[in-house]
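Contributing: when you submit paired examples, paste them exactly as shown. First protein:
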Amino acid sequence: MLKKTLLLFALIIPLFSPGEGVKFPEIDGWQRDGEVKTYNRDNLFERIDGASEFYFSYAFEKLYVASYKKGGSDLTIEIYDQHDPVHAYGIYSMERPPSADIQPIGLEGYYDDVILNFTTGKYYVKMNTYNVDNAGEALLMKVAQQMAATLCKNPKLPAQYAAFPTGNMVPHTQQYVSTNFMGLSMMGSAFRAKYTGREGDFTLFIMHKKDKEAAAETMKKYQEFSQAETIRTEEGKYTIDDPFNGTIYLFWKGNYLVGASGKVTSEEAFGLAEEAMNNLKPE
């Protein structure tokens, strides 16, 4: 919990903007260190060499970076434009530590030692401090709350993440795997969340295909990969004996495939799959 006295540490005054709706704050007592730096897909490697391809897989468009100084202290703010809320929350969720202390910043955020990360709308914001009293928690929280309001006024959890039943879901475990779900290229991308059930821990996942035909193709290839005796191509419930991932329960309807893997019974798996499907709008 933050102490009320610490909240007075950062006085925020008008914002400055590099354009396109991205705004950085002017912070009382701090000086901007140079101009805002902008990166795109051609030069992102200059900023995060080795991680660029990972960000590209989450529809990265641009990165804006502003640096501040106050004596021997430093503050850096990075704003990643990830095209849409699905991909912004997706990459945030993949980098979020399992033990993160989740805070209501924008759509969701967390503070950890000298960093504060949050996502809102199509943006993923990463902030860090160096040599700041109390690790800069009060400063980062104050700046983040104001920035979040300027980047997206009314952030909402995208429908695919919100579709997961909450009953026995482990809180804040929704993620988006952008490619090769379960290590299989045929599966493409998938949303997933962790659950604790009667048999133990398991994963519920949602695959959103562009249309029913694409979902049918995925089902066909997955059955062929698993060497199923009979290849089915009609909507409904499937039990797949995956040679690498064990027994997979899948419910196919329209352009959605909802399934479960891990320590889960077929009854529990299909029950949750149907509940998730009801929260979606298959086409």
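Second protein:
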Amino acid sequence: MAESEICLREEGSVLLVHPDYEGRVTFDWFRPEHWGASAQPVSSGGRGGAWFINTGCGYIVLRQYRRGGLVARISEQSYVFTREQDVRSVAEFRLLDHLVTLGLPVPKPVAAWYRKVSGLSYKAAIIIERLEDTTPLAELISVLDLADWENLGATVRRFHDAGVNHADLNCFNVLVRGSSYFLIDFDKGRIMPAKAAEKWKTGNLERFARSIRKVAGNSVLDRVWDSFMNGYNGSQSS
């Protein structure tokens, strides 16, 4: 267990809470129906299973872990349990907490939950602080200028310089607030070993380029990519 978390266990469920939320978060926070009209489904990106919530003392995002592809036909929300530290909500909570301490632009984790549904599987969810006054990059691609793309490239480079491998870098997992950029959704993300081959960085960038192409087309990708890479390469450590 990381130092900056409180762990609660109740009838097969496990709850990790950030110390800043000690005494406030309960297991009920992970039930959308608990919030009534204060929980609004997130419509942008993803596979569903996420809500914007006004707690009355702050804004949060509740996200359930859901499978995609063919395996979802078998079990949309259950994952194989091996050990607690590998549970997806636990791993993402701890990674986000670490990235916050590094000063990287990510949402602060609030709490993580999981429950075993059998001896070999579990369901999970995570709560993070909502980054207010932000817009998904996917909705702004047509209005950002080339200087904006350079800034975004420099931001992504900060993560790579810290060894952060984002498993799904796409236009919906980048949020924009003015000239600031934030990365979200670090499910399956990880800190890479210092001696790891550089190909993981290339993989991140190629995935992001495919996302731009899918959302906006080849012409937009061709227009912005050099500026993005100029920003990315310009932030190299000497």
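If you have annotations for the second protein, write them as plain sentences, like these:
The longest strand covers residues 121-129.
The domain at 6-129 is CATH 3.30.200 (Phosphorylase Kinase; domain 1).
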